[in-house]
Amino acid sequence: MLIAQISDHHIVAPGALAYGRIDSAAMLRHAVSVLNELRPQPSLVICSGDLIENGTSEEYAHFKEIIGVLKMPFLPVMGNHDRRDEFLAAFGSQVQNSSEPFIQYVRPAGDIQIVILDTVTEGSGRPSFCADRARWLDRILGASTCPSFLVTHHPVFPTGIEWMDEDTQEWTSFLSDVVDDHRSSIIGMTSGHIHRAIHTRTFDLATSSCPSTAHQVALDFESPGPIFSQEAPGFQIHRIESGRLTTYTASLERFLSGFDPRQA
Predict the structure, then answer these.
(1) 262: exposed, middle or buried (C-beta count within 10 Å: 0-12, 13-18, 19+)?
(2) Which of 4, 12, 11 is nearest to 71 (CA)?
(3) Structural domains in the chain?
(4) 60, 110, 196, 252 — which has fewest CB within 10 A?
């Protein structure tokens, strides 16, 4: 089974540019066109947070107009730029919110289940995962007989990019405890937020983060403040076979312009 992941779209109002220079809407349209041409088609697409820039209903309507062309079902995830009330107004029919006031839900996908988690601190870019969210996850994992793939917006690992990282990883302590109790039934974790592809192991699980369909976070390990990059956007494909997770990261730039070297 193939699952696609795109992330951090930062859609603004029609006609506007994110940060005054990024045509995030055009870039998401291109991402959707690439996903629609993938063969074989993924079973679904995860949109791992920061769907929009300012949390307005106008931006969510713009996002839905663009993503509506996607040929596959998509799973929206709360990011720190999203707003829970507007998010639910836009996607209430798609997300069965079982842990109010948090937006966490489960979707079956082939022989696994995808568990969408809410790591957002409303009004802040800082991540959080409280005891209430952890109890919900513990209940979901304990009731399942199939492997689970966990999705967060914020990476659950230190990225090494100083201005994006928390001072400590204490915010993951409740999540870590639940994972410890159910590790054998979790095939891996993925996230967004960092606007870069990073592959590592956390909680003794394969974990990764997905690049943005728009701008990237610069690969700078020293800057104390934000630096963005206009390098090529990207996406990920998660291949799940016999309980094994393999994650591929690809650039969206010229992805469809392949050629046969035997005809050179």
Answers:
(1) exposed
(2) 4
(3) 2-255 (3.60.21.10)
(4) 110
